Amino acid sequence: MKILSWNIxxxxxxxxxxxxxxxxxxxxxxxxxxxxxxxxKERVEKIKFFKFCESQGSSSNGASGGAVTLxxxxxxxxxxxxxxxxxIATLFKHIRDGFSWILFxxxxxxxxxxxxxxxxxxxxxxxxxxxxxxxxIGDFNTPLQETDKFGGSQIQLDSKQDxxxxxxxxxxxxxxxxxxxxxWSNHRIGAELIQVRLDQALISIDWLQxxxxxxxxxxxxxxxxxxxxLMVEPKGGxxxxxxxxxxxxxxxxxxxxxxxxxxxxxxxxxxxxxxxxKMRFVKKMVKxxx
Length: 290
What we know:
The chain has 290 residues and is α+β, with helices and mostly antiparallel strands.
């Protein structure tokens, strides 16, 4: 299964809708999440793209917000749950294996008060559905780590902390981008260049137990945001993974100290999240050593 998410920064023009159609045709995703359509719910749900037979939209608030979730009903069944101008929640069910899960297509507000109310609404919804595996994908409007931003002013601590608290409270996992570090750029040159990872994907532990997930950044077109794609594959179809074993020869490798540096990095969140994140970094370093 392939899920694509993109902050389009307005979909009123024919040119933007043509870009969406081309993305849908060329990348053949099963679910397409679009943020900041800047259109009404009724209007955006009338637009049909490629093989997407079903859609759920939310209206914009003036010239900002608005979203739409599109899916291929021949592969997956979708039931709309709830929506507002900053998120859409949809219950999906795979036709092939019957697995059900909840997907949030989100555009997080920039305003401090609105942002905290938003996270409170999403958290309340999740607490009311504790047994459902779920994904949160979209434009989070803030980076989670200092390394998620290059250039410009420092990250606002309150917005970063609000996101970290949500992740910790709901025991979610932040998926790393595998082919890029940032999803937004102001396209300036030199000292004026700013790049940030604003578009992200969070998954519940239930997902990791069942699926292997890979998050990638795509080529930017028609917006200052890069589309991101989430590839989801059943773990049963993968080759068997062998248990980790320490190799004594690694102690003589010239890059061994880089692993120590990776373990000593500062990460926000609960202890379990610290360990999981650091193990992921060290694993990458060990693979390079091998």
